[in-house]
Amino acid sequence: MSDRRKFLKTSGLIGLSTLAAKLMGEEKISALEKLGEQENSGKSFTLPKLPYSYDALEPFIDKQTMEIHYTKHHQAYVDKLNALPSGNIDFSTDDATKCSNIDKSTSAIIRNNLGGHYNHSLFWQLLKPNSENKTNLPGGKLASAITKEFKSYEEFKKEFSEKATKVFGSGWCWLILQNGKLKITTTPNQDNPLMNIEGNEKGKIIMALDVWEHAYYLKYQNKRADYITNWWNVVNWEKAEELFNTQ
Ligand code: MN
């Protein structure tokens, strides 16, 4: 580029930004510049690190299922999001906010893959190894809130297990906090309780259970109820309590 053209381009930009600053105020310009930086930094989705090894949840969730679930299924949601034309995703917000901005007008590809990525990222954190098969129960304020809402932990476990078992086709079962009350709810496909979808029970997610066949079929085949029974052994109650306490 010639010096003259470079000069014209630079002075033109300065002229524009001065004009824009006058029209919009300095604050908005600075926000626009920030947005520009984010676009230029090539933001994309990444597969979060699994907090344990593939075989760590044995014998309750098997190594092969974990490896395929994480490296193939979760990775596919991430890849599909990253293959979207730039500008389709607003990278100025966190993933929870991105989910809460989803409604019926959102394209299926964004709804399904953003949900898929968000739900699995949370699901991995809400599991923890228990190879010694120790009794695995909630504690702290979450345990008290469960007893208060569902009469007893056993009643809660029964209701959650039943609802998870009855999800028709692919979906998720959730424990959410809705207006200060714990509630068990389910969603189809990769929807979640953050999304603005009609018929969706909205709330803060405390627990998440993936009941897609890919989550259990290799070990449990058609016996989803057995997968759910065993899943209780590897629930990460500390993480659930953390989510509950940061309401
Ligand atoms: Mn899954």
3D architecture notes:
It is a single chain. With 247 residues, the protein is mainly alpha-helical. It has a single domain, classed as minor pseudopilin epsh fold, CATH 3.55.40.20. Helix content is 51%, strand content 9%. The protein has 10 helices and 3 strands; from the N terminus they run αααααααβββααα. A 3-stranded antiparallel beta sheet has the order 2-1-3, with helices on both faces. A hairpin with a 2-residue loop joins β1 (171-178) and β2 (181-188). α7 packs antiparallel against α9 (224-231). It starts with a helix and ends with a helix. Mean pLDDT is 87; it is low at 1-42. The site of manganese (II) ion has 7 residues, from α3.
